[in-house]
UniProtKB/TrEMBL annotation:
One cellular component (GO) term of this entry: protein-DNA complex
Pfam families in the record: HTH_1, LysR_substrate
Keyword DNA-binding: yes
Descriptive protein name: LysR family transcriptional regulator
Record's keyword terms, sorted: DNA-binding, Transcription, Transcription regulation
Organism, as annotated: Aurantiacibacter gangjinensis
SUPFAM superfamilies, per database record: Periplasmic binding protein-like II, Winged helix' DNA-binding domain
């Protein structure tokens, strides 16, 4: 049996190539030259005595064994990072590097309130933020690219632990005067399915809005077009339809300078849970709970 053990660097190169499906982009993501990355993967294949990647001029194709090795490599790299985290967690809490993914329907509205205070009170914390849709953020978490994720629940997260930050109410936003004399709360039955504008797939707010309305025909008729809440607001302000907005966005002033009115959505399940999540059994769990307390205080 071979006694050769892959190096961490070789596994990182292999994972980068799998994620980028291109040698040049993988090398750029790994901060090495393309020749260095390619040579590292070839050495890995040579020493293992197998082919992991089929190469051609236009296509990078992983063999079935290569895909299996990549899946295992993700776990090995994640365990390696957690080994370093054990040491870091034993020192001063909320210090050193921490990579947090944040979804776009939270980042521009919550973070400006929190980051200045966090920088002042936790000067040793180097917080690296990455804005990603919910599905990509959870993928980053389980692949070790993110240490924790700030997102809205319910959403399929896999095996994670969580700390709730707040509850965020959903509002219906519509051009002023449409409808005339709107009620204090908008029942889902008042929403014209042909006029509803929502975020594209991958954004959990779309699913939260549809679930809260509990009208199957909305899923079939709503226009999934917006790439951001600011885009949706501009479309509503131009009379193109109505949309759903979280209260935190309204409180942050997203409707300032528009002729848009907003009312709470009436019914059950009309709030989303803002939560910080991290991988189950993470050695930094206590640190993430402390970070959640800091986010609540914001």
């Amino acid at each position: 049996m071979s006694t050769y053990l892959p190096t961490i660097k070789q596994l990182q190169y292999l994972v980068a190539l799998h994620e980028n499906q291109h040698f040049g982009r993988a090398a750029e993501a790994s901060f090495v030259s393309q020749s260095t990355l390619s040579a590292g993967i070839r050495e890995l294949e040579s020493l293992l005595g197998v082919t992991l990647v089929e190469r051609s001029r236009r296509v990078v194709r992983f063999t079935p064994l290569g895909n299996s090795v990549v899946a295992k490599a993700h776990r090995v790299l994640r365990e390696t990072e957690e080994l370093a985290e054990i040491v870091q967690a034993a020192g001063q809490p909320l210090s050193g590097e921490l990579r947090m993914s944040v979804i776009p329907t939270i980042a521009p509205f919550l973070l400006p309130q929190i980051l200045p205070r966090l920088r002042k009170e936790r000067p040793q914390l180097k917080l690296f933020l990455r804005e990603e849709t919910s599905d990509h953020a959870i993928e980053s978490l389980h692949h070790g690219r993110a240490d924790c994720v700030l997102l809205a629940l319910p959403f399929a997260t896999g095996d994670v632990e969580k700390a709730t930050i707040s509850q965020d109410e959903l509002f219906v936003a519509f051009p002023e005067g449409e409808p005339v004399d709107p009620p204090a709360e908008i029942p889902p039955s008042m929403i014209d399915e042909g006029r509803l504008l929502l975020l594209e797939d991958g954004h959990c707010l779309k699913e939260h809005a549809l679930a809260a309305c509990n009208r199957p025909e909305l899923r079939a008729s709503a226009t999934m077009i917006g790439t951001s809440l600011h885009t949706l607001v501009q479309m509503v302000d131009n009379g193109l339809g109505v949309t759903m907005l979280p209260k935190m966005a309204i409180d942050a002033g997203i409707l300032q300078g528009t002729d848009i009115a907003a009312r709470p959505l009436k019914g059950a399940n009309t709030t989303r849970e803002i939560a910080l999540v991290w991988r189950a059994n993470s050695p930094r769990a206590d640190e993430f709970r402390l970070l959640a307390e800091e986010l609540r205080a914001g």
